[in-house]
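We modelled the chain as a single entity of 80 amino acids. Its sequence is:
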Amino acid sequence: MVRTQKIGRNDPCRCGSGKKYKHCCARKESQLSPTAWIAIVGVGLAALAAILFSFTTDTPLTSVNCPPGQVWSIDHGHCH
């Protein structure tokens, strides 16, 4: 069984750059991939679009209180 030692933050980076691991590859390993960012942004835009489309004013106002003896006219947008 082969055991590998865990690399420490202050050890030289294993890529051979000569930098400490914390300033080189440690950042790369903790970042999200470009595909993950695209997915996050896509979901966010879809949610924003759903919220914006839910505020449409094309729905008829059926719960308007008209004076006694009158009814709401959807075609005209006022009581008759």
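As a brief sanity check on the tokenised model: The chain has two helices and two strands. Strands lie at 72-73, 78-79.
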